[in-house]
Design goal:
Layout: H1 2-7, H2 13-25, E1 32-33, H3 34-41, H4 45-57, E2 61-64, E3 71-74, H5 76-89, E4 95-102, E5 106-112, E6 118-124, H6 132-136, H7 149-168, E7 177-181, E8 184-188, E9 193-194, H8 204-222, E10 224-225, E11 234-236, E12 242-244, E13 251-252, H9 258-277, H10 283-291
Antiparallel strand pairs: 1-3, 2-3, 4-5, 5-6, 6-8, 7-8, 9-11, 10-13, 11-12
Helix pairs in contact: 2-3, 2-4, 2-5, 8-9, 8-10, 9-10
This protein binds adenosine-5'-diphosphate and magnesium ion.
Adenosine-5'-diphosphate binds near residues 104, 108, 189 and 233.
Length: about 290
Amino acid sequence: MAEAAEILPELEKEDLRILMAIEIGMKRSEYVTVNNIKFYSRYPMEETLFRLKRVHKWNLTVRDSSKNEIAYTLNSIGYDVLGLHTLVEKNVISQLGPLIGKGKESDVYGCMDENNNIYALKIYRIGRTSFKNIRKLRSFQGERKHISWLYVNRLAAKKEFKALGKIYKLKLNTPKPIGFNRHLIVMSYLRGKELAYIQHLRNPSKIFNRIIKQMKIIYQKANMIHGDLGEFNIILDHKEKILIIDWLQWIPSDHPNANSILERDVENVCNFFKKKYNVESNPTKIIQSFYKK
Ligand SMILES: Nc1ncnc2c1ncn2[C@@H]1O[C@H](COP(=O)(O)OP(=O)(O)O)[C@@H](O)[C@H]1O
Ligand SMILES: [Mg+2]
């Protein structure tokens, strides 16, 4: 992402249009032939070739010259450039800050808007390290024969953005969704520390109960189950308020696997508090209390 932020000011609008033409072509195949890029950009061949040469030199594309027609695909920096460009254009953000977190399937950066408000920018990178996560998102695939990493990451961002919006309405302390584009989400910046990295809690039972209470409110009022809850996705701020992040894998409470996924979330939290703080709890009882309004 830092590369994308550095290159963006150097690019001309024609360069961006060529990148977008490749992006459109990538809906149908990973590599897009020069002729198709020309078609989608609606530039003459000469301009198309000139722009392709430029964006390739900036290292935003990968070229395949093994077939009889040369073809291009966006690499992750190329895609970052497009997402970042749109967020800047829409005045959502104006400046990228430092890397603040690295998750299983994302990078999170600080960023700022024109009024110096600080936000977090989450960039989806599903498929970067393993295709296991892509498989998890198979349900998105539907009837499509070809599923690109662009599409998977774009859908992931959309899904999490939507989830953040639903939960934000409950006035808990989850990040406020600010904007999204392609594989990028902008949300409020949370100050705090993941439970996993906290060495000591003064009153672990109190924190444990707060987490369960928050899960229950989200379950009962928004009909949502986190689906990937654990000590890495629970942040504690300086007032020991609970902030639950990372909502990509959420499911609605009427999902066919809702019970077992809720159980897993609750058990993860119970096990963590048992192991690290020796807090006793009864997951079965806790889950039953979720079902009673
Ligand atoms: N809104 C935010 N404010 C501050 N830091 C955040 C925010 N969202 C995520 N982070 C940081 O980035 C890390 C990865 O984010 P997360 O949403 O958990 O991604 P992943 O799905 O890759 O695990 C988090 O563990 C946290 O340190
Ligand atoms: Mg996470």
